[in-house]
Structures are given as C-alpha cells and as structure tokens.
Design a protein that fits this description.
Blueprint: H1 3-28, H2 41-73, H3 86-115, H4 120-148
Helix pairs in contact: 1-2, 1-4, 3-4
Length: 150
Amino acid sequence: MSFKEKMAWVSALVSVVVAAVYFGVVGARMDGGAVSEIAYQWPMIIAIIATVVASILGAIVMAIGTAVRAEITGEGSVKDIDRKDERDVGIDRRGELIGYYVSSVGVLAALVLAMLRQDQFWIANALYLFLLIGSVVSATAKIVLYRRGF
C-alpha cells in the first residue's frame, strides 16, 4: 500500500470520527427549543482544529510506521514516503475533483438556505456537513482508484 493510499485512509477515518463526535455533541443540545439558541460555534471550531491536528498526527504515525517497517523488513525505504509517480498524481487529482463536486453541491445547498433566510445554525452546519462529506468522498474515491486501478 502506497503512502498516499494510507493517507487517504487516515483522512477518511479522521473525517468520519470527528464529524460523528461533533454532530453527537450538537445533536444532544437540540432539545426542541430554538436552534438559534444552540451554541454550536465552539464545537465546530474545535472539530475543525481536531480534524487538522488528527490528520497531521496520522501522517506522522504513517510515516514513522513506514520507516520502521522498511528498516525491519528491508522492503522499500524511507524514500518511499515522498515517492510519487504518475499514477499517484492522477489518482490524487481525480479524487480531489470528485470531492470538489460534492462540496460544491453543499455550498449551493447552503446558499439556498441563506436565500430562504434560514437560521445561521442550519447554514453553518450544512456547509460543515458537505465539506466533511466532500472530504470522505474524495478519500473514498482515491482508495477505490488505488484498489481497482486508475
């Protein structure tokens, strides 16, 4: 498994776990009252920061694991972490494009919510949800392209 494929797995896992925690926390605050009273801002900021930090830590762990495996088994080398061939570039480009399309639909959905004068809670959460979905779809597309061929 290439390092880029491992990073796609890390990205998908981090996005799903952080989103589940965020929506669990915010969902628990929805008690039937007005959504304008729900304090979602700090949990969302923390979720965004947690996604970035967890992705960086995941990259570090994957790099260390790859280096240790190369040292122990003699298969590959530390240079494999930075190795990127034509296939990796194509897969990354295609996966990001697919994720972009999904995120774009979400931005349009948030725009419609804004035009309908919905509460900021719904607009912000729609944007966050579709950015997360775009990230997961992008990572999933990359994994599928690595596994099934490009």
